[in-house]
Amino acid sequence: WTCPRNFGKAFQYYKSLADQWGNATAQHRLGVIYSFGFGPVEQDQGKSLLYYTFAAAGGDQQAQMTLSYKYLYGIGVPKDCEESVYHARDVADKAMEEFYSGPPGGKTLPRAKYRLSQEFGGAYGVDGHGREGGGEEDTLPEIIEYFRYTAERGDYMGNLVLGQVFYQGTPSIPANYPRARKHLLDTAELIFQRDGRKQKRDEALVEAAAQAAGLLGRMYYRGEGVKKDVEVARRWFLCAADEGNADGLYGLGDMYLTGANGIQDTDKAIRFLSKAASKGHVESLSTLGLMAFEARKDDEAMQWFTHAADKQDTQARYYLGEMYNEGWGAARSCPMAISHFTSVTESLDWSYSPIPKAYNAYRAGAHQTSALLYLISGEMGYEVGQANAAWLLDQGKSSTPSSSYIVLPEKALGLEKREREEFTLALWTRSGNQGSGESRVKAGDGHYWGKGTQVDVVKAAELYETAATHDLNPMAMWNLGWMHEHGIGVPQDLHLAKRYYDQTLSRMPDAHLPVSLSMMGLWVRWAWNWWRGEEVSRPHDFLHRTPSPPKKKYEEEEDGEEGKAEWDIGKQGERLEELGRRRKREEEEANGSQEGGEGGDDTGDGFWERGGGDGTMEETLEEGLVDSMIILLLCGLVAWMVYVRQLRVRGQ
């Protein structure tokens, strides 16, 4: 931070501290240095494991997470789920203690981890659905500016959304409770007056005001941005609960459960919590599960916790880890236990995660420091840390001109080109093994081009196929189409190649031109094989698009799930905004206004949704593909005519 990086001197100081005093932090750092072979130290996984083990025994949580991850996946050690659970559970226990040390409802969760490649739309410059560039860093300020503009003109939806944004915070925008309170008050007081009177207006406004009231109650109950005041919190919760708002119902239920309002009444608590849970309120589900767990009703607790964990509740995941580890309410399952414990350790990581420092270093322009910290987090098992470290080491995605300013020096972190490529491939592979489809494709590229390993097109095809079938990654689909077309790494199969090209276009409509060019090449190859008398499929098979691949589970459930808390800016914001648009359409129809036509009001569509919804995507893609092929053929014809004309002019 304040002096040039010198791994050799760092190693000497860490070793002296570890050998003389048994310092656990120094032992962990020695484990990192031996794991990567930084500076003059030769890479030695045996010594790395030894120092990690000593550090974990000394209570170093980073070392404990590292060992848990390595034993889970068998990295440098035999796979051992029980050993993995042993380390993860200890970290999870301490994390939950810190969580419960906070205000009612638990300590505020750390900010979400930010994937650096999102800033440029993904590791390839486009995200999984084909949108180029412009991640959260580009779009979120525009969203906030839009709603700030509408809020200044008295729009309740703008105030509500800004209140949500500043209450929750984002990976790039810290929470700001005073600003959140101002916007929420502006919304709530449109219905709930300070003297206790209530104004009745349209459905959308009442629902928005109730949601704002629920959040205000939460802020006063927890003392967030204001002095904690249980009575004021109770009044806001009552306002929200009267309109059926789940936050208000949960707040009242928690007060009666803990006696925070001076009255402890378990029956009333269960009644309020059950009403909130019926609306999908995640904390209510988790609290009911905890009550059943403490009453030793294991089957009932398992049901409540499972429902809450499906909605990403950390407390529920912790207790599910305990129940699966002990065999309470379900058959004992080590894989299920480690899955839940790991989720807890990576969510409640205020005191030991290097990711916030890594992100701050990245923003400050200290990209090598950022890469080093992301490497450490990747060793601990953070998938986003692995992906970010790989992305930084991979020349900062130098294929994208806008990202050239973050290309690391040639010998960043003292790594030679070969070492850097090997680490990058290993990181992409580990990230892919934890479910990142984009990382699987990058790992496939490494095997295809021989970066960080020997060229292995068969392995590349396997990785592409996993990313295409499991993650529905369009880049992997196109790669497989090309490999099947040319018979590289897989048997040549023109019909299968066309299927993958069709699926690429279904998942990534913006890839219209490259897919059209690929299809033209496929047609030429088919015609050539036919002319040579080889057995080919019927032309009819090439004229019709292959059905799109099935949606992933999270896409199928995305629209119908009410699982997140009521202040979720995503689904809840969309639902409230849809109510607002519906109200505006009704007003326009009542006034005889014909602006925008049927369903033409597009307020906010640019921020919350994309495209139409008329069910004609399949026909549009098919017609567009034919049009593009015709245009390309005409361009080729014109180019040929120009060429012939030039030959004639030269002849004259």
UniProtKB/TrEMBL annotation:
One of its GO terms (biological process) is ERAD pathway. Keywords: Membrane, Transmembrane, Transmembrane helix. GO terms for cellular component: endoplasmic reticulum membrane. Residues 540-618 are annotated as: Disordered. Residues 562-580 have a biased composition (Basic and acidic residues). The keyword Coiled coil does not apply. InterPro entries: Sel1-like (IPR006597), Sel1_AlgK (IPR050767), TPR-like_helical_dom_sf (IPR011990). The chain crosses the membrane at residues 625-644. It holds the Pfam family Sel1. Belongs to the sel-1 family. PANTHER family: SEL-1-LIKE PROTEIN, SEL1L ADAPTOR SUBUNIT OF ERAD E3 UBIQUITIN LIGASE. This is HCP-like protein. It comes from Piptocephalis cylindrospora.
